[in-house]
């Protein structure tokens, strides 16, 4: 088991290193001279040169990468061009906000997805199953822009029951904060619903067809008890890993949702950094997202191997 | 056992069996209700992209500052936007750039991903491990984030979008193709080709590739839906197709500030158009997948 984890962590670190190269190359090398980008095309060459020296962008690309990644590993994420403040603290508060939004989305989608999957599985082939599956499949492919806009128009404006900004007024209590996050969480929920529902459905269908389910039925166990005790326990294992593996998607969805609903999270931070050509902020934000994704998938893999011994033993080989 | 006793199917028999399978696949596909529905939606938007200016009663670019933010009515079916442009005309012609960029990007991603997947699956070992790390690194970022990064790096243009989305799709498709190739390479026809002394390139592209086309085709249609998804999202964020030609994502972002004033028609129809196109493409993808399975 520890061998499996060590190997996964090692490979993950190599992947992260490659990712850091890609991010650095895309945000630091390709867009051209950052000093020129900040000062604009009309600035005097001498002031561009001075700023380039201050930023350290007049050094060689390799030494720039070395400095950047060296600082990053020791927890110094650099200084934002735009805010002239350390990126670390800006990023931490943005991450905290995003986590809140993601948590609301998960609290909504996990029970709904599992419930939808189990109901569909208990009615395989019947209209209920087909309706839930079609809704799930369609919800998964419709971009958050579309669902977000429709939600804003219906619940935010026509019915006026939910606030259209995710940011609560300053000093708002926990309840108000959650209230403001409900509508932004729904587009994320819609996309995730399809995945979770399909996995829960497949797992339940398989468990229902198993020998132990048949034995339970034949020994006279009431259907409700059989489903609760035997089917659900086994069918939900793969669903748990799907949920963990959707973290990556979730972060991507956050960019759009946070911009649409005016929320200060990691997604809007990356968006603002990219529009404002705040390259250190963009690099740090993207790399942090990569790390979050890798940690989440590693967690999902370990969880799955703990739940499924067959994978665990194969991993040690 | 002598070589003569091994039954060898004639090339003609193999060809006719393949043609029969292809025929059955097409029959399954055409008879599927999902496919018909999806194809109708996609067909509609393709027609709108080509003949949009003829279909729409007004010019999508013509501004009329005396008639801004007008609610839907007889003269403007979907109303007008903040510059007095006809929303119906802009929705109808808004698919054009999307339907050019999305298929091209998906095609690049599919070709690149197929080549990578073939190489990874066929050679395995060190080659697979090294390319695999790069694939993993790309997959660690959400599509939209890689898209933003790519547009920052290369500057906003339609070519950038095609390249960036293509490059992002390549690792995803490579992973699927690799898995299919790993199964194929163990089969007899591959060993036979190797014994004949064929080159690796010949075996990968002439022997194995035709046999892994089914998953590639499914990937292509599924990715096409995601390409539209990504394009619309990037356009909404301002990293997509540049103005002034109409496109749905950009329309929503420019008119989005107006919804609190009650001008719902300036964003709702674009949103519905996006939803219909993505759902249509995905219906085609689903029906191709199930036609291949049966």
Walk me through this protein's architecture:
The complex is a heterodimer of chains A (317) and B (294). Chain A is built from 14 helices and no strands. With 317 residues, chain A is mainly α. In chain A, helix 6 packs across helix 8, helix 7 packs across helix 11 and helix 8 packs across helix 10. The radius of gyration of chain A is 24 Å and the shape is globular. The termini of chain A are close together. In chain B, helix 4 runs parallel beside helix 7 and helix 5 crosses helix 7. The relative contact order of chain B is 0.15. At the A-B interface, helix 1, helix 6, helix 7, helix 11 and helix 12 of A face helix 5, helix 6, helix 10 and helix 12 of B.
Spatial extent as radius of gyration of chain B: 24 Å
Tally of DSSP β-strands of chain B: 0
Q: Assembly type of the shown chains?
A: heterodimer
Q: Can you tell me the residue ranges of chain B where pLDDT is under 50 for at least 5 consecutive residues?
A: 1-6
Largest sheet of chain B: none
Output the number of helix runs of chain B: 12
Secondary-structure element order of chain A, N to C? HHHHHHHHHHHHHH
Shape of chain B: elongated
Report the average pLDDT across residues of chain A.
Answer: 83
What's the helical proportion of residues of chain A? over 70%
Please provide the count of β strands of chain A.
Answer: 0
Greatest chain-chain interface? A-B, 48 and 45 residues
Q: CA-to-CA gap between the ends of chain A? A: 10 Å
Rg from Cα of chain A: 24 Å
Q: What is the element string of chain B, with H for helices and E for strands?
A: HHHHHHHHHHHH
